[in-house]
Amino acid sequence: MFLLVAALFALIYAFLVLIADLTGYGTPIVFAVLAFVIVAFQFLIGPKIVEWSMKIKYVDEMEAPKLHQMIDRLARDAGIPKPRVGISQVGIPNAFAFGRSKRNARVCVTVPLMKMLDDAELEAVLGHEISHIKHRDVVVITALSVIPMIAYFIFQSFFFSSMFGRRDRNMGATIAIAALAFVVYFISNLLVLYASRIREYYADQGSVELTGKPHELASALYKMIYGSTRVKPEDLKALEGMRAFFATDPGRAKKDTIDLMAADLNRDGKIDPYELQQFADSTGSISTFEHFMELFSTHPNPVKRIKRLGRL
């Protein structure tokens, strides 16, 4: 994954140098600096934004002893400092981790999630979030997000310059640069989304390594997705910008629930080891359209995700 980060930064650097060399403009370099400043600012104040948006209340061991015990054990087994523990008051059953580093990390669960999952399922979800912290996923995705931002700034500048600027012999080059910048923006954005989906798979695997119970994580994901179907549309819309933080994407819950009911053979609302293995071995797959739509998602398709859990 770090090779992907390095390769993308090398690509955007080469793109900026090429533009500056061909046009004699220093503007792209200025945009690159601006993008880094914006992302650095977001990185610094990001935790406060998440705390405010998600209505987080941090709890001590007296207030949530079971939650602290689970997180303490998982963090110790993962070899990272124990993160700060919080409970979110939003109405979506989900969990998330955030922070600028392993020492600055927080793990939070929502009230509906704590009511919905049993202890083993909750521990599996917390293992997923602890793995995000261990793998430095927030840092990786934040770093990658600089690249499409730079390309978008360049596109905007050269596009509006071609539309409203002075007509001269450089007009063709300006339009070509704007078009190329948009292509770079589109492709790099897809690569950032791909990296986000890969990080979810790694976090799932990390949870299984910590707990040894892939079926508990599969069951928890199924419950979380089903529980999200009951959330009011206006509540989902209010948290639109936070969907990438969640363990599952609540915006796709209704469709995903229908797809995952095939794994719940006895319709008890859980996925046990036998059901997970049967689902993983089944020949059914997602459609071409769903494969295509997954390209624009921060999370893997849940059918693929749970089938993969059955193979771990």
TrEMBL record:
The chain crosses the membrane at residues 29-47, 138-159, 171-195. One of its GO terms (biological process) is proteolysis. Pfam families: Peptidase_M48. Residues 63-309 form the Peptidase M48 domain. GO terms for molecular function: metalloendopeptidase activity; zinc ion binding. Belongs to the peptidase M48B family. This is Protease HtpX homolog. The gene is htpX.
